[in-house]
Amino acid sequence: MNRNLTICFTSDIHGYFSDMDYATGMPGTTGLSRCASSFPHDGNTLILDGGDILQGSPFAYWLSRNPVEGAKVSARVMNLAGYQFVTIGNHDFNFGRETLESYLSHLDARCVSANVEGVAGVERIAVVTLENGLRVGITGVTTHFVNLWEKPENLEGIKVHEAFPAAAAALEELKKANVDITVCIYHGGFENDLATGELLSDTGENQAYRICRELDFDILLTGHQHQAKAGLQLFGTYACQSPDRCRQYVRMDAEVPADGNVTAHSRLVDPGKPEERLAAFLAPLDAQNAVFLDQPLGELDVPLLPGDHMEMAENGSLIANFFNQVQLEASGADLSVTSLANVVKGFNKQVTIRDVVATYVFPNTLQTLEVDRRVLKAGLERCAEYFALDGSGQLQVGQSFLKPIVQHYNFDYLSGLEVTMDIRRPIGDRVTSMLYEGKELEEGRTLTLCMNNYRATGTGGYPFYAQCRLVKDQPTEISQMIIEYIDRHKHVTVDKRKWLHVVY
Fold first, then answer.
1. In the chain, which segments carry CATH 3.90.780.10?
2. Which of 56, 145, 292, 369 could lock 468 by a disulfide, CB 3.0 to 4.6 Å apart?
3. Is 173 exposed, middle or buried (0-12, 13-18, 19+ CB in 10 A)?
4. Region(s) of the chain under CATH 3.60.21.10
5. Would the pLDDT of 475 be above 80?
6. What is the structure's pLDDT at 344?
7. Strand (E) positions, 339-469?
8. In CATH, what class is 295-503?
9. Cβ neighbours of residue 9 closer than 8 Å, sequence gap 6 or more
10. CATH architecture of 3-289
11. pLDDT over 90 for what percent of the chain?
12. Of all helices (H) and strands (E), which one includes residue 174?
């Protein structure tokens, strides 16, 4: 007799619970409420999430003012949506163990993670029997790059072990539990091109391809990369990835015949109408959040509006200049680098908290490193890879910033050093001039460079930063630094210098 399992899977919701467009303050067309309205609730359906719940939206930022209590709100939302099993995303550690445990303790769903140790409410594996008698074995793993990205105090008492061996060990446990079908929820993505098998990154941050190739889970549910992958068969494992922010969710239908040979197919489901109970719960909270977000902070001398990512990279971005001037004042460093999100809101002259948290969307803090010309050139050469020339000699985005995922956020804008790049030259030898205070920076001279803690770990193709001496570590989130900077100055004159000159 064939038995069926339906899975509804989301990942990387990032606090986008309602359909609110926080940039405009008006209802939008995405969000958990709109996805949850079409979740089926029956005895043969599992509703699962791949983590990154507690951080990432202006609503989540508002909740994080009291993160332990805010986590209870997030849990309530997930309960109303009907989740049964979740795993932990890297950003769920952003507010420390107490907040994470508050979230999990108020969650109706069970949390599975085979590689997270020291967090109350986490199970290595779980076995659930469906109404039709099907025994489903579930585990979860989180990218172990959490250890590189997260502030040490937020991981106090917590160990995040390597993802692959933890997944392998959990699979063996599930097999011993005599389950009919095995499911792994992985907060990580694919390190290989799924069409060609080409290795795109060997850092270990994403190991989904290896999990499919070397292990034999029946189903692998992935996230972290914010890409939509409806479903594919890889080495006998059926794998998919849900996009971020509940822009869609994955609905999978699996069939387990008597011989145990699992077959599955899945599709991406678009958001529908808001789920009534969720919408009713969130409406007064959104109203309170709106009052908070629309508080005026101060005034800029010019509006800071985004352009096309290539246009901003080539010609400079006043948004990036502004972020850098905030970082320079906060750190006292000689130089500053910053990056922009894949989607950039920008600022009008009159600035509100909404503008800040919708434009600087990362939960990063600020670190200052000691660097020399060699390190600076290495960083700039990585940035120079962002530029490529098409057949007509025009600039286009380089492939290393588009695969395995789109990563405009890994292009760094630098302030304090006047740089010239010649894109006609080979990759790795494109930086032709580095002027500091009007003079070519000499070999051996050391300067201080501030950047976000994510970049300071070397992530994004900058491994040499991880080897530099840490001069200063400032635990305040950069978004909060921006808010405080505008509030303090009230009338801000933005740095309008062009620091990068691109020749092609």
1. 295-503
2. 369
3. middle
4. 3-289
5. no
6. 92
7. 350-352, 365-372, 387-389, 395-397, 413-415, 418-422, 431-436, 439-440, 446-452
8. alpha beta
9. 48, 49, 50, 185, 221, 240, 242, 249, 250, 251, 252
10. 4-Layer Sandwich (3.60)
11. 88
12. helix 163-176
